[in-house]
Write a structure and sequence with these properties.
about 220 residues; alpha/beta; Rossmann fold; 2 domains; five-stranded parallel sheet; 10 helices; 5 strands; about 55% helix
Length: about 220
């Protein structure tokens, strides 16, 4: 059976997956992650996974846990299709944060479950470990409440630092939700924030994207 767990809290999802794995023989549990020197889960990682599929289980059943499944590139996902469709005595848990990055052909072979928590433990942990967090929170509020573009621009340096961006996006979205903007302006700002997140995922230069955010704001 294949499960696609869509979560907004990967720390909690990983913890629960590890707890679930205790019901299996440890020799039959396989944890699939991207190689540390890669930005994606590549087909060579999936080839290793497929090879393990083809071996007999030590006990009754195998468990494969794919962490950050949305990082599988297209070739890797296509490589899995026949295997996850035909495998028996095997459970696969795909943990992901972005369902749109999972191919429809993979989604159709899985039971999709949503795990959306009110308090995101991942962000909470990141905030506790980031010395800039108070400044990030204040800068996000300043940006959304700014009366002129100069004030907004002064808030951007701490928000645009790559190491701060995940927390910055969360705080900007919170500040935007609380802001009293016309619906059309609010939508334009949400779209600019989404583009920043996509560019960050794609390792693109963020300077021009933040210019778009300023244009949407003013």
């Amino acid at each position: 059976m294949n499960y696609l767990i869509v979560t907004n809290d990967p720390v909690l999802a990983e913890r629960e997956a590890l707890e679930y794995a205790k019901s299996y023989n440890p020799c039959d549990v396989f944890w699939i992650k991207k190689n540390p020197d890669k930005k994606e889960i590549t087909v060579d990682v999936i080839n290793d996974m497929v090879n393990q599929f083809n071996l007999s289980a030590v006990a009754n059943q195998k468990l494969f846990i794919v962490f950050q499944a949305e990082l599988m590139n297209t070739n890797a996902q296509n490589k899995l299709l026949k295997t996850i469709e035909e495998a028996t005595n095997t459970t696969v848990l795909f943990l992901c944060q972005n369902l749109e990055r999972i191919l429809p052909t993979v989604r159709s072979r899985c039971i999709i479950k949503y795990q959306q928590t009110k308090e995101n433990q991942t962000l909470k942990q990141m905030a506790a470990n980031n010395p800039d967090y108070s400044a990030i929170k204040q800068a996000a509020q300043t940006f959304m409440n700014a009366k002129n573009i100069d004030t907004a621009m002064a808030a951007l340096p701490v928000l645009a630092k790559p190491e701060n961006l995940t927390l910055a996006m969360d705080e900007l979205n919170k500040a935007l939700a609380a802001a009293d903007f016309a619906p059309q302006k609010k939508l334009a700002i949400y779209q600019a924030l989404a583009k920043i997140a996509r560019n960050f995922d794609a390792n693109c230069n963020l300077v021009n994207t933040f210019d778009l955010l300023l244009l949407a704001r003013f």
